[in-house]
Specification:
This protein is of the alpha+beta class and 376 residues long. It contains 17 helices and 14 strands.
Length: 376
Amino acid sequence: MKAKNNKNSVTKTLDSYEAQLVTLYPNELIDFLGGVEPLKKINIFGHRIIYVMMEMMKSAQVHKISIDETKEIISNDMVYKDGRITSLEDIKADQIEKRRILESGKKLAVIEESFFADNFSMLQMIIPTQALNDNGNIKVKDNSVFHEQLKILKTLGNHTVKSNTGEEFLITNFIETPIFNKGQNYIRFYISKATSRMLLNNIDGYSKVYRSILFSTPSTMPLNIYLYLKKKFGKMNGGNIKISKFVEDLSLASHYLKKSKLTIFLNGIQKKLNEIGNISFGYKITEDTLTFSLYETKNTVFVEYPSADDYRAKNALKYIKKSRKLNEKQLVYIVAKFKEQGYEKMSEVTRSRLDKEITGNDYLKWFVDKCNELQL
């Protein structure tokens, strides 16, 4: 799918767009990472790293070095090995490095280790790039795309942690000391206990992000569009927005203000979500307004609403049925009135003050009397 940039005549594909939104993160995590603006630099590959970090904190067991291993490391006795004098500390460091490489090639690992001369306890996270590529199911041309995102993640989430003795303080970030190997088959980095707690505290909120989208396309745009609609219209499963506002909020090029260009753009996003996700949307363009409806893809059908008025009526009826505890039989008269009079006129009835305890037949009687009073 292509969009032409009139300013410099450069043609961009959908996959060229970087992230514009961070609505997939809970507010607490956004604040911890430094606010909305810094997070705009994260693209789909960075989102995958954070997703895997979340999953690791939820399910991975933290490995600790044993007391005997620690004593062996700090004893630092000199020994003769392989024709040279070395120390047990150097040997142990070499063994730890081999263990990291071994584990990173096979599975996710979280290892609790000392950081900065044993003064700080940090968690080292080892992530095979295969896990970031959905165990090889996603074709990524070059794993360096993850390395570039590590640079960005390293600049986020500035915070201070106490040393193990409580006498020193470390100014650290969301991740520390990111490393990748020559073969580009794993990445590893450190996180503080504060970061690990923040991840654990926000796992439930982050679970709203749909893995199928994160791991099925190199473009952030399908995810951005869906999350934008979900955040804006999720409670009602749809709604209306001015085209100019939609284009502005998503930082889209000005030519998307044209119906023809916007239609091509939305069709491409909709098709992509239908292919890869368990969520998608239907839409209708009416003059300067977009009307959206959100669906699970197993139920996705393109629904066109004759007007925005009809869409509002549908949602009003859904709300009345639930809040006033009406059955289908009780709802028949109300539905007929909405079809006869339209949403705008019937809103005079629905916006009238009424005790929330009035439900069922009592509500239906009140509704009929109110319509008669207003001569509807």
